[in-house]
């Protein structure tokens, strides 16, 4: 781990060099008198595969045997191999283990092979490297740090490069990082220097780190023994591996990070493994069964020695011990114990893990295949990044959703603006359809107009203060394309909406060419501005600025940002005029931005310029230094106006939210947006109803009353707690008597600042108390809205809920990079394939095109997956318990001699052939309630909430059922065998007949039990269930019909056929199967009127009526 | 996989399988099905139960314990370990005709033929007539692999060694004279055991195959001389041997000894007094076992077994009872009707 290494060296070393690396461009030494000590960096090979051909076997086996169940079976197997005297041959438990291990190894090997293929495609890609002026073709994996690499248009960069030279005139190149973060816009990258021939330079840059948008470094350029020139390098100079060169013929760059140290490679590492609650249940059940196993073995061992101590029972004359047995008398107790363990080890379902894994792997295809998840707009369906969490989708209790892009479309439309307190609203019938229309230019007058000068200043600000690019057509046209077709590309859709809005009022942004921004003003004149600095947007500052110089030589700073970040930085008298508009717009659900400007005098600019350049050159704490300069520059501005942009709700957002709430899921909206906007979205999504009482805990409510914030916080928390928690409890008491009384819904609103106060109170004692109060309030509210959240706060909230009492299952859904932290934190992370790039999708467990798909994903897929896998797990334990219980009981009748009841073939085949396929088919295809009904009745989701089918109650039921069946099988046959003359020719049956009858009853009963539970019989179910029963019969005939030359004992020779020739055997088999299943049938019938099936019937009736 | 990914990149296949819309039969266990079903099953079970019960009742069984534990029992003298070739006579009488064909079983109790180590102590290769295993029996036969002189034992192993060797002769007392009842020793073992699974080596005379081997330690006669009257009933396909080699499932078991199928007694044993002449060889007292002989006739369901009939009757009536209960419950509470 490079970062770890880096951190270690930071701690240990005193030199700054360990934090940075020095690269000799083209492997030429920096200054002539200094010899190069070529530093060692890793090569440019990407290795995402886990195994090689050589280490696959040992490494994969090691990984597999780290699983507790596999390891257990290995131990059992070794015990059987080592001890000569075991009841069953090593093959009986070795074969299933081998099967399980092989299936898993094949699956993992296949996945690794795919990774190898992908790696090779990247690593063997031919690239051009410039060495001493010659162009050399190389394989991509041979690139070393310091090589100068040439890349042509539409090629992807083979490693992280610093751009040195571009074929474009303006020393820039365009790249698209679609494969890295999904942003398909063209980004500009600037060259670091021009002269490549006599190049002699070193680059000093930070050690590799995974953040795609951060890079600091500097370049020392040596020319003819002069003092080396220094240039700062930032992300704008860095070309990332995986990005593609666009709109540029070719570029040259020097490799700075290669192979596994590239930002792309660093980003694909270290995604933590999420485990589902079902897996935890399985492990708990496994422990119980291990205890049962051990106690069975202990009981048998003890009883064996008690029995043997009776005179005559140990070593009767007909069964003398061998000499070896007599010698090893001392350890015999222990070997007996082990033998019993071996005999009963089948109680641990060896094939369960592999079945569960196959179920998850195959089952997840149903999500990708679902055509309801297909979105014709982006031409993509759902994506499953991990299949381990399928069933967790049926267990969600909390949904944390992002607002922008998730609840809303992130499809911005300029609605209105306000200049100097005057409202400008654009009304045009066609604008509703197209979004904008420029034919009728001037700003509509509503009541009064601000001065023309102010108007134009405002519109210029909108045109200049952004990072939007104009989409270039491939042929360089002199005449600008018609405005309607003009395409803008930006990382944030707000900016496009603003630029388009300005265009509607007559100011058109024409583009940015070599640091010059061109705009077309109302008089169709082209205005040129020199772009001096861009003070980038960041979520902490919540604003961005540009510094431009107009033709007339004025230096202007335009700033736009959230009201809260702009208002403190402008003159207060201006604020009041605009604040009203901003707040009204916000309550209407629009996104508002304020626009401010400032004249910079020459001195002021010089100072700012110096500060910015210095900060950008800094290798250490560049971010902090830049921030400080930004804050310093963005002061004393004057407010011009505000804009309102509408963000439409996603399709069916309200319906989806309503359905989720109906399913008992609590929805928390976590957004970085303003409270008013977020609140209006919540109302629009019906998360807040009209009768919902809102409990607000925001900076504003804290500042009411003019007391200290901490006191007020305390007071409010107590008050809300009383309201939401205590009242609810009261209500719960009374509700038994009068359910009809209106249930007061509460909604809770908190903002980021207050949240951090709640979570990080100064006094320790209050901290945990506040947190508890806060949690309790939230848990009693139907909806919680957290606004003004930083990405990390989102994760913090998810973590807090996740770790709260009862550890509820959480789901986070979001579409942007700011949601990644909460997507990773929650039990299930859902990414929306939205407009804000692909980072959320890449880090998610499941990705869906639209929010509305969440409903089906949870209510239908999640519900079904959970029911399927829960049934699978319970059934597996059950079928192995009633498999091995008769064998245990048989010990009481065979002198505790570890005599197996079943033949070795049956022991081996039971789990892998006779009973495995029906349950697999069931666990893939079962729909105990059909999908439409699940979707229409969200309340059905509540029935499986809190791991309902895998709690100790159901587990006990299944275990008791297994015990009941096991007892029935054994004793039923036992009483039949009180007279073993079961054939009409008077011949008698022996012990293998006994075992075969029990086994036949067993196989039929467990299969029919599953058939009884199957509510959805497709042809596959029929085929598999009847097929495996037929296979059992066929196999038994076959196995008993031939003298097998490789077998030492022909135990089952004609046993099965003889069994079938006995009427009594038939009758007992039928009797026992029926008797085992009767209670089940009765239970189903009696429980029916309350179960979901009844509701299904009722619903069917209401539909038909 | 790759194909699937391609498919998912575009529009997913709209097939019934991928959309989880395969046509399916959705059975509903409703009262309308279950109540008549239960009645039907119940009636069928009661029918079978009655048939089984009546049949089982019709089977005559006569069990005689001849272990000789009690002082006054006829075989008590033979329990003395030191007596060789002890013969004792067990007298019994039959009141009514014992319907033929009569099957003659011997039974052992507290005898663990299903003991694991006992059970594996045999060599199936040897028993299938493979001569190489005559020279070197499988090690599983231990401790009856070789005798003290290191000669291989054939047939080796505990199971063969402990073969039941009491023999019986049955006489009817007709006017004070003993009239021997002929016992048929054919067809008492499984056909497949006799004809396929166990084979003698194809050496004639059979005796030569056993050169260089010794008989099991417990045996008084070598394997090739088990039945002097019938040369085809010797070696590993001796029927008594085969019956013994099929291990019993439970510690109290019976095994078929003879059938009374021909001669005067083919129709059964008439009422009267009988004497069973037991040549008492098999020691069971050391481990607390008992020996008995059982005369029984059989029916289509095999030997007498009350359990099956009673179980069928009980389950059958339970089904009927439950259906009545269900009917009452459903009638009373008027659950939503179903069709």
Automatic annotation (TrEMBL), chain A:
Active site per UniProt: 402 (4-aspartylphosphate intermediate)
Residues that coordinate or bind Mg(2+): 402, 404, 815, 819
CDD domains hit by this protein: P-type_ATPase_APLT_Dnf-like
Keywords (A to Z) from UniProt: ATP-binding, Cell membrane, Endoplasmic reticulum, Endosome, Lipid transport, Magnesium, Membrane, Metal-binding, Nucleotide-binding, Phosphoprotein, Translocase, Transmembrane, Transmembrane helix, Transport
E.C. number(s) listed in UniProt: 7.6.2.1
Domain P-type ATPase C-terminal: 841-1088
GO cellular component: early endosome; endoplasmic reticulum membrane; plasma membrane; recycling endosome
Subcellular location: Cell membrane; Early endosome; Endoplasmic reticulum membrane; Membrane
One GO-annotated biological process of the protein: phospholipid translocation
Record membrane topology: Multi-pass membrane protein
Database matches in InterPro entries: ATPase_P-typ_cyto_dom_N, ATPase_P-typ_P_site, ATPase_P-typ_TM_dom_sf, ATPase_P-typ_transduc_dom_A_sf, ATPase_P-type_domA, HAD-like_sf, HAD_sf, P-type_ATPase_IV
Binding residues annotated for ATP, in chain numbering: 402-404, 495, 537, 560, 591, 671-673, 788, 794, 818-819
Reactions mediated catalytically: ATP + H2O + phospholipidSide 1 = ADP + phosphate + phospholipidSide 2; a 1,2-diacyl-sn-glycero-3-phospho-L-serine(out) + ATP + H2O = a 1,2-diacyl-sn-glycero-3-phospho-L-serine(in) + ADP + phosphate + H(+); a 1,2-diacyl-sn-glycero-3-phosphoethanolamine(out) + ATP + H2O = a 1,2-diacyl-sn-glycero-3-phosphoethanolamine(in) + ADP + phosphate + H(+)
Name of the top EC class for this enzyme: translocase
P-type ATPase A domain location: 125-262
TM annotation in the entry: 284-307, 337-356, 905-925, 955-977, 992-1011, 1023-1044, 1064-1086
PROSITE patterns xref list: ATPASE_E1_E2
The protein's required cofactors: Mg(2+)
Domain annotation P-type ATPase N-terminal: ranges: 38-93
An example Gene Ontology molecular-function term: phosphatidylserine floppase activity
Assigned protein family: Belongs to the cation transport ATPase (P-type) (TC 3.A.3) family. Type IV subfamily.
NCBIfam families named in the record: ATPase-Plipid, ATPase_P-type
Name the UniProt record assigns to this protein: Phospholipid-transporting ATPase
TrEMBL record, chain B:
Record-given protein name: Cell cycle control protein
Transmembrane stretches, start-end: 33-54, 310-331
Recorded GO CC terms: endoplasmic reticulum; Golgi apparatus; plasma membrane
Gene Ontology BP annotations: phospholipid translocation
Subcellular location, record wording: Membrane
Family from the record: Belongs to the CDC50/LEM3 family.
Alphabetically ordered keywords of this record: Membrane, Transmembrane, Transmembrane helix
Lineage top rank: taxon: Eukaryota
